[in-house]
Fold this sequence. Notes:
Radius of gyration: 25 Å
Structural class: alpha/beta
CATH superfamily of the largest domain: Glucose-6-phosphate isomerase like protein, domain 1
Shape: globular
Amino acid sequence: MQAHRQRLTAISTEELNKDQHRLSNLTFDIAGCHFDLSRQRFDQHTLNDLAALAGEANVASLRDALFAGEPINVSENRAVLHMALRGGAPNLATELVREIEAARQKLYQCAEAIRSGSWRGYTDKPITDVVHIGIGGSHLGPELITEALCDFTAASPKIHFVANIDGFDLVTTLRSLNPATTLFIVASKSFSTLETLENARSARNWFLERTCNTAAIAQHFIGITNNIAAAKDFGLAEENLFSMRDWVGGRYSLWSAMGLPAAIAIGSDNFDKLLHGAAIVDQHFAETPLAENLPLLCALAGLWNYNILGCQSLAILSYDQRLRLLPDYLQQLEMESNGKSVSREGEALDYTTMPILWGGCGTNGQHAYHQLLHQGTSAYAADIIVVAQDQMNLPHHRNWLNANALAQAQAMSDGWIPQSAQDSHRAVPGHHPLSMVLIDELGPTQLGALLATYEHKVFCQGALWNINSFDQWGVELGKKLAEPIYRSLSEQNSSGLAYDTATAALITKLKSPKT
Length: 515
């Protein structure tokens, strides 16, 4: 790989694209999405060796184990079968298929009842506002879908999302709402997530303070969880609970009942199309030879960029305001999945895995961080996402937006070197690897396909790096450390609790009277 890197250093992307077969080999059309990898900084010889690496990493056999429901989440001994929720996992047991279909019908019946107004609050008024309380995987996906597919959403009810433990998030959301017409969705797979439970308790208190009616909770609170007993103990009615399976990871749960707020927003027919778009990609990933397999080629491009070219940053640049939340969603999907330092066998890695993923929306970044992208010294890769059409009927806006997207891709890839040394400050080196995604229109089928492609890319990269992409033990330490600190901040006497010097000093400062 290093020999390939040295060989390709002085070759421009335009020179690479003179290969008459390159464009056809590195472009893919699937479910209304056009993926163009032709600006990646490798040639066919490099790609052949990368494919050989995929063979050595047993990507094909791990993929087959994924779809067969084998416990590939080795640290928790769990299967990973979120594809089953969208009809993308073949050869499922008949009973499991029936369970999935029954759960989906319950989800759709609930969503349509709320959308149509037949779900009534305790004063017999229809629901006008839905407040979804979750965080992480139970929050990022549903909010992304709801905002991205705003052209398909109903005017009522209005969907609100609350995630942050910062009380400002909840208080400002509730400030203008009427408890008689507000429905809360409490989404937590474990039903023990601190932020979600604290916000849910505060929401329940807000509701009871204004209604003085505990019986009304059944008409105004829904739970989505794998811990039904804990949800019932919280006070939620069993008929208003949606269950989660342990083989659905949080960051892959938007296809499940966790997608309820999105189903309410866009309707069950459109949610079905979202699932269908993802299932098309599932079939492609499961059945297409590795040399022509889009998610694997995306993963190989990523490995080449991060481990060989030294790109420690991946920029997700969405040229459509509706995809504003895509970088946030992908940060969890990719960095929580593949931000690992030990192998599947528990051995320390001697190579890097996941780069920092970040991003922005539209032309805003061109007047800010694009300066660093074009003339800075950091190596990075980029995914630029473009939507061909929208429903705004402002053709000049869309044409200018897409013109800027294509121009930025050209500048990042090809750069520009001035003729005169006196103008060296204007030089843009270029040679940055990037992929383009052109979506014909931002509909549910296309969005489902886009998200599923990223999901399977993450899986392939985990296989290539020999890591478990389906656990997240790194987030647990901070939660554990926060509990005694909370007690110290809440109590006058925190003796007996030992902290490092800096933490102890900050606790004292926080508890000191304001001077």
